[in-house]
Amino acid sequence: MKGELKQRLRSAREPSFGTWVSSSSLVAVDALRGLGFDWLMVDTEHAPVNPETLAAMVALLQGSGPTPFVRVGNIDQYLVKQALDAGAHGILVPLVSSEAQARAVVSYAKYPPEGIRGAAAAAASRYGRELATYLRTANAETTVGVQIETREALEHLEAIAAVPGVDLLFVGPTDLTLSLGLLDDRTNPKVRDAMRTVVATCERHGKIPGTLVVSLEEKKAAVDLGFRFISLASDIRFLLDGASRFRNG
Q1: Which of these is catalytic: 46, 89, 156, 205?
Q2: What is the pLDDT of residue 13?
Q3: So where are the chain's domains?
Q4: I want to staple 3 with a disulfide (CB 3.0 to 4.6 A). Which of 25, 141, 144, 150 is the partner?
Q5: Among this protein's residues, is 46 annotated catalytic?
Q6: pLDDT tens-digit series, residues 17-34
Q7: Is the full-model pTM beyond 0.85?
C-alpha cells in the first residue's frame, strides 16, 4: 500500500481531481483509469455494487494510475472493513453529522491501538503475504474521509474537524442543499457560504476539503473556494453528457 496521494494532499496547495464511479461497471473503471485522474471513488452508497464487484474494481486500480477510494453506504464497521480489506487506499463515509460519528468512522478504519479494525489475510495485504508490512503502515497511509452534508454537520463542524484521524471533510453539495431547505438550488449563496465555512475550518485544523462538481463552472468555483479533493462529476454523467451531445449536435 502506498500513501503518495495522501502525502501530496497534505502538503500541496493545488487540487487533486478524481471522479465518481456510479455505474457499478468494471468496464467504466478500466476505461477511466488511463485518463489522468488522481483517484477514482467507487460508490457503494447509491450504486448496486456487491462485495465481489467492489473487490474487482479496486484490484483494477492497484499499482500505477488513480488511487482507489470507496464511498461506503453507512457509518458501519462491516462496510468500512470490506472496503479497506479489498485494498482501497481511502474511504468516504456519508452523513457524518457529529463528533461521535466521526470518531466511530476513524475507529472502524484504524487498527489497534488507534481503532478497532480487525486483521485479515485479504487483498489489501496480498492475502496475508504482506500482512506484517500492511499492519504497520495502514493506519498512517489510509485516508479517512467524512461527508459534510447536513445542517447538523455544519453545527458540529469544528468538533468533527478536530477529530484525530479524520483526513478529509467532503461536502456533499446536493444533500447539503436539501438539508438547508433549498431543494436543488446548489448555487444558492447559502450553499456557497457553507462551503466556504468547511474550507476555512479544514484550513484551521489541517484537514483536506473536498467536494463534487457537475460542470466546468462548478469546477472553477470549487477551485476558487479552496477545495483540494474535487470529484469531476461521474462516469454516468460523462456517459449522458457525451451521448446527448452526439444525439443533439
Answers
A1: 46
A2: 80
A3: 4-248
A4: 141
A5: yes
A6: 999 999 999 999 999 999
A7: yes
